[in-house]
Amino acid sequence: MAKNRQDELKHSILNVVLFLLFLYLFLVSIELLGYSFKLLGRGFAEGLLSTTSNPFIGLLLGILATSIIQSSSATTSIVVGMVAAGQNALPLANAIPIIMGANIGTTITNIIVSIGHITRPNEFRRAFAGATVHDFFNILSVAIFLPLELTTHYLEHTAWFLQGIFAGIGGFTIVSPLKTIVKPAVKIIEYLVGLISNDPKFIAITCIIIALTILFYSLSKLVKLMKSVIIGKVERLLHNYLFSNAFRSFTFGILLTALVQSSSVVTSLVVPLVGAGILTIEQIFPYNLGANIGTTVTAMLASLVTQSPAAIATAFVHLLFNISGTILWFPLRKVPIAMAKWFGEIAYKRRVLAIVYIIIVFYVFPLTIALIIK
Predict the structure, then answer these.
(1) Rg of the Cα atoms in the chain
(2) Residue 96: CB partners within 8 Å, gap ≥ 6?
């Protein structure tokens, strides 16, 4: 009897250790993916964002730039810097559609994570729907608030008003514990790849391949372990506390994203949980809304440090847009949730459409528009 308990305890400890190991690899893969895309395309993204004053083109360029560098925070930071430069750089009115596009572009990480379930149809249906609910929320928000902004300029006027209140407040910086933990592994991988060739493009592309390999491998292992480890006490913790009601889920999303400083990572973490059937789309939707708001904290703090009125106003635009979307679509959450489930069913029947969706929506269509306006 005692021996059985000892064996059970050893098995549980081993599972927890393996779970933490694969979770770490999963987080490293996402960080490496983002870093590689930034290395490959940050300069290109900066060039794109300064090419137009057309709001529709600005929206598409925001999607494309964020898809390339895999970070809405990075895109927003570029935009903040360009707006803060003033004069011939980027007016705030032109920056607003780009920020909205960045909100859509950042969801690509979730969808890439959901592709890791593509060989397991039922898991993939849930995971893909769980990933795209964030897409539909952002797309619906843009569909409502971009025309409203173009006619009333409510985001621009409110942002300038709030900037006047906060302009005299000095900011402070916070260090992401996640980046502190995973960055050494990313640097080691980059260093080892750099031993083969010093070409930045070679390093970036090789690191992307490595990142995707680690991502899919760690994800498959995570899902198996979650089914054995999480189902039980940890699953009850998720259901009874962290995701027990919309308010807790929403607050958890804000706090975790403010701490981690990456909405892509935070929202990607729940995709495998939805895929495994541990959480539902209804439970993670408020969490995603919270992550959307939490991701603005970094830019807000950075803008307050600069004490540049334009930079502060730009950061407020991002915050106000995400709050506006939450106020509108949380009461109407059945709409984006139903759209995500419908799309999940389509992708379940024709899984190749998920990959086609990523390529066309996030790259081909925006890039085609960008080339046309060139």
Answers:
(1) 21
(2) 55, 58, 149, 155, 156, 317, 321
SS3 letters across the chain = CHHHHHHHHHHHHHHHHHHHHHHHHHHHHHHHHHHHHHHHHHHHHHHHHCCCCCHHHHHHHHHHHHHHHCCHHHHHHHHHHHHHHCCCCCCHHHHHHHHHHHHHHCCHHHHHHHHCCCCCHHHHHHHHHHHHHHHHHHHHHHHHHHHHHHHHCHHHHHHHHHHHHHCCCCCCCCCCHHHHHHHHHHHHHHHHHHHHCCCHHHHHHHHHHHHHHHHHHHHHHHHHHHHHHHHHHHHHHHHHHHCCCHHHHHHHHHHHHHHHCCHHHHHHHHHHHHHCCCCCHHHHHHHHHHHHHHCHHHHHHHHHHHCCHHHHHHHHHHHHHHHHHHHHHCCCCHHHHHHHHHHHHHHHHCCHHHHHHHHHHHHHHHHHHHHHHC
pTM of the model: 0.77
pLDDT classification of 87: cutoffs 50, 70, 90: very low
In the chain, the amino acid numbered 189 is I
Binned at pLDDT 50, 70 and 90, residue 242 comes out as confident
For the chain, the maximum distance between any two Cα atoms, rounded to a whole number of angstroms, is 77
**Distance (Å, whole) CA 145 – CA 125:** 30
Tell me what pLDDT residue 333 has. 93
Q: Are 126 and 116 in contact (CB under 8 A)?
A: no
Cα separations (Å) of 139 from 82, 118, 129, 298?
Answer: 25, 24, 15, 23
CB 340 within 8 A of CB 129: yes
User: Cα separation of 57 and 159, whole Å?
Assistant: 22
Candidate from 124-133, 220-229, 291-300 with smallest mean pLDDT: 220-229
Q: Is the pLDDT of residue 127 over 90?
A: yes
Average pLDDT in the 15-33 region? Answer: 79
